[in-house]
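Subject: Sanity check before I submit

Could someone independently write out the structure tokens for this chain? I want to compare against mine line by line before I put it in a report. The sequence has 70 residues.
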Amino acid sequence: MKLKLGSYDREVFALMLLDNQHQLIRFEELFFGTIDAASVYPREVVKAALNANAGAVILLTGMVPSFGKA
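---
Independent answer below. Compare away.
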């Protein structure tokens, strides 16, 4: 996932949608935010899972590294 989400310069919220055998159906980048926040709407997460007929969902966030912050 580091390869998928690590190149962004802002927050990314993504889903791994899995079937009942926990095989990947698809990877979907759902929300993009600013450098330090991303708004996530639960109904959109549920809608994506239902549309894919997913049996399981893994939630992912691509956090921007903060160099020099204390």
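---
OP: Matches mine. For the report I'm noting this point. Helices lie at 2-5, 42-51.
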